[in-house]
UniProtKB/TrEMBL annotation:
<feature type="transmembrane region" description="Helical">
    <location>
        <begin position="359"/>
        <end position="381"/>
    </location>
</feature>
<feature type="transmembrane region" description="Helical">
    <location>
        <begin position="299"/>
        <end position="316"/>
    </location>
</feature>
<feature type="transmembrane region" description="Helical">
    <location>
        <begin position="31"/>
        <end position="53"/>
    </location>
</feature>
<keyword id="KW-1133">Transmembrane helix</keyword>
<feature type="transmembrane region" description="Helical">
    <location>
        <begin position="156"/>
        <end position="173"/>
    </location>
</feature>
<feature type="transmembrane region" description="Helical">
    <location>
        <begin position="269"/>
        <end position="287"/>
    </location>
</feature>
<keyword id="KW-1003">Cell membrane</keyword>
<dbReference type="InterPro" id="IPR011701">
    <property type="entry name" value="MFS"/>
</dbReference>
<feature type="transmembrane region" description="Helical">
    <location>
        <begin position="97"/>
        <end position="114"/>
    </location>
</feature>
<comment type="similarity">
    <text>Belongs to the major facilitator superfamily.</text>
</comment>
<dbReference type="Pfam" id="PF07690">
    <property type="entry name" value="MFS_1"/>
</dbReference>
<feature type="transmembrane region" description="Helical">
    <location>
        <begin position="65"/>
        <end position="85"/>
    </location>
</feature>
<feature type="domain" description="Major facilitator superfamily (MFS) profile">
    <location>
        <begin position="31"/>
        <end position="412"/>
    </location>
</feature>
<protein>
    <submittedName>
        <fullName>MFS transporter</fullName>
    </submittedName>
</protein>
<keyword id="KW-0472">Membrane</keyword>
<feature type="transmembrane region" description="Helical">
    <location>
        <begin position="322"/>
        <end position="347"/>
    </location>
</feature>
<dbReference type="InterPro" id="IPR020846">
    <property type="entry name" value="MFS_dom"/>
</dbReference>
């Protein structure tokens, strides 16, 4: 593997072997497998505490909103570290930054279960968030550089599918162990799984062929960021990332508290099994990415956000079957929308893609941290009904932003099917 991202090609003419990877080629398979594993390890590490929030609240004697910080502080600092991580990737290479990011995150994850207090746990989660930033900061730019534009949506869909399964395992592994042991062993089991997946990522990831390392200054980076922020369509996508992720994490942060309480009274293992609904996102992310390549991203994006909103409303009655069906639709719609929006950023930003991807992901994970903090207040005030109202308001804003992308003539012309 070429950790430095240097190309071995010395000519400027691209041969067939040096062309961007196309769907079905061995290189495309290796890239999507490696990025699938990257999504798995990142999201297992990122969300290993979400299924444990009720146990953390009980063990440390803190309210649900405080326990939820074990998720939001990680995503918050990750959002702030994404742009510096992308700058490092410009100098030292995409693959090198992703691999070291995964290794450092795993090292922190292995010692987190030793935290004696909630304060120490939160500090450790802050450090882990910084370490994790290199994977999401670089993955989108790496795919956009190495995969042919007509197959980028499908490749991005596979990466997002990996994040959905990573999110699932990040909840399912600890919740299953928690039913037999303590939250500390549950968190340790998640860390071990992340280590194994990091090995898979490092072994299968091809070296960069179209990346050239360069020295960058903060002035250059700032200029590139401003360039993207002046693009109205990219601003809309950044705002969508913030809103969608904020609403998604808000709902799942407090779903466990609802299902453990009357009238459901589910066990920890049963609540963990509810996270199997993430598999709907695994399917819809891959399908939406490919469908966006075929029929245009704007229609797929709008439909996905609407499906997510409908699913949220279905969860309101205290009927377990409706809660499960609603969360299935909510989850599938969210991951489909994220797959389309993230792939669209790479397509619209024809230069300085790392900075464009970083801005989207910075907004995305800030939404997870800041918007989800507001959900804690809503849940404390009015339970699940207030949480649905809060998330529903976010989704209405997302629908409006999706309509902006639908109606813009420039976007319609640029979003012609491949």
């Amino acid at each position: 593997m070429d950790f430095g991202g240097h190309s071995m090609t010395t000519t400027t003419t691209l041969t067939r072997q040096d062309a961007p990877h196309r769907r079905g080629s061995p290189g495309y398979t290796r890239i999507t497998l490696a990025l699938f594993a990257a999504g798995l390890t990142a999201f297992i590490s990122m969300y290993s505490t979400q299924a444990l929030l009720p146990a953390l609240a009980q063990d440390f004697a803190v309210p649900p909103g405080t326990a939820a910080l074990a998720v939001s502080v990680t995503t918050g600092v990750l959002a702030l570290a994404i742009i510096p991580a992308s700058v490092l990737s410009e100098r030292f290479g995409r693959t090198r930054v992703m691999v070291w990011s995964a290794v450092l995150s795993c090292a922190v994850g292995l010692v987190l279960p030793l935290s004696p207090t909630i304060e120490w746990l939160l500090v450790g989660r802050v450090v882990q968030g910084v370490a994790l930033a290199g994977i999401p900061a670089v993955a989108m730019a790496y795919l956009a550089e190495e995969v042919h534009g007509r197959d980028l949506g499908a490749a991005m869909g596979r990466y997002v599918a990996g994040t959905t399964i990573g999110g699932l395992l990040g909840r399912l592994i600890p919740s299953t162990v928690l039913d037999m042991s303590t939250w500390r062993w549950a968190m340790e089991a998640s860390a071990v799984a992340a280590v194994l997946l990091t090995v898979v990522m490092a072994k299968t990831m091809p070296g960069s062929r179209f990346f050239r390392p360069k020295r960058v200054s903060w002035g250059t980076v700032t200029a590139n960021l401003i360039l993207h922020l002046r693009n109205r369509d990219l601003r809309v996508l950044f705002a969508l990332g913030f809103i969608l992720m904020g609403g998604f994490v808000s709902a799942y942060n407090f779903l466990g508290f609802r299902l453990l309480a009357p009238p459901f009274d589910l066990t920890e293992a049963a609540v963990g099994a509810v996270f199997l609904l993430y598999l709907s996102g695994t399917v819809t992310a891959a399908v939406a990415g490919r469908l966006g390549d075929l029929v245009g991203r704007r229609w797929v994006l709008l439909a996905a956000v609407c499906v997510s909103a409908v699913g949220l409303v279905v969860t309101l009655p205290d009927v377990l079957a409706l809660v499960l069906v609603g969360m299935l639709l909510f989850t599938g719609g969210f991951f489909a929308a994220h797959s389309v929006a993230s792939g669209w950023v790479g397509a619209l930003a024809t230069e300085h893609r790392a900075e464009a991807s970083s801005l989207y992901l910075c907004a995305y994970y800030l939404g997870s941290s800041l918007a989800a903090a507001g959900a804690g207040l809503a849940f404390g005030w009015g339970g699940w009904t207030a949480t649905v109202a809060y998330v529903g308001a976010l989704l209405l804003a997302a629908i409006w932003l999706s309509l902006l992308m639908l109606w813009t003539p420039e976007v319609r012309r640029a979003d012609a099917p491949a």
